[in-house]
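S.,

Sequence below, as promised.
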Amino acid sequence: MASSAPRIASNAGVIDAVKAALGDAVLDAYEAVDEITVSVRRVSLNDALRALRDTPGLAYQQLMEIAGVDYPGRPERFEVCYHLLSLTRNHRIRVKVTADEETPVPSVTDIWPVAGWLEREVFDMYGVLFEGNADLRRILTDYGFRGHPQRKDFPLTGYVEMRYSEQHKRVVYEPVELAQDFRSFDFMSPWEGAEYILPGDEKARPEAPGAPTPLKADELPAKTGGPKGQEKAPTPKTTDKPEDTGAGEPANSEAAERSDEPDKPGGNA
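The prediction came back faster than expected:
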């Protein structure tokens, strides 16, 4: 029985078709884990995306997502990733451009109007500027938020915290005050034992006074209350034959006669 899932187009020949359609705009193209990624020049982004949408055999009609990635060690630390879907071929492709804090990326709202909100998300989270977006405002964070929370150098606690003040009868912003610092985890197995003394375990050191160390199984006395090292108790007697247990033939004929009487306990029914 054939599967009801839609048939996904193969990646075979897609990279060659993309390079032929985009020409010099392509910086790199590769396939990994069954996904095709194409890096293009930032100034050629609009032309490249329009070619991917309108070229027969490619036809990536829909913009599914715009995502940001931060690599602080790179000169152009941000990557902006455009995820495209071909509805007619049931195939996806990823297009990437790079940017920094000051260099804007061309907006693609003239190709896909939905990109307006998606570009606002990347701007809000990473601070990437999009040239040509007519409404580039924050969309996920609060009014007056400082910084961009998805950058790798943004503190986990943020800069301010908000709460409702009964005194002022409104929401107020205050500097972050942590009741407890972040814990540092060493990911060591507790069964292997840490290489340092954990807080509260100082009494477990051998030189520290405390309860006596329990005896091991082979150090226990042989009898309760006996001195350590006393000779072990004799091995208990075992039975090898039914006769040793007392079962089997009656001990005398009188007991055998009583067992034959039906009205007495032990007799035959």
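Residues 77 and 110 are 26 Å apart (CA to CA).

Coffee later?
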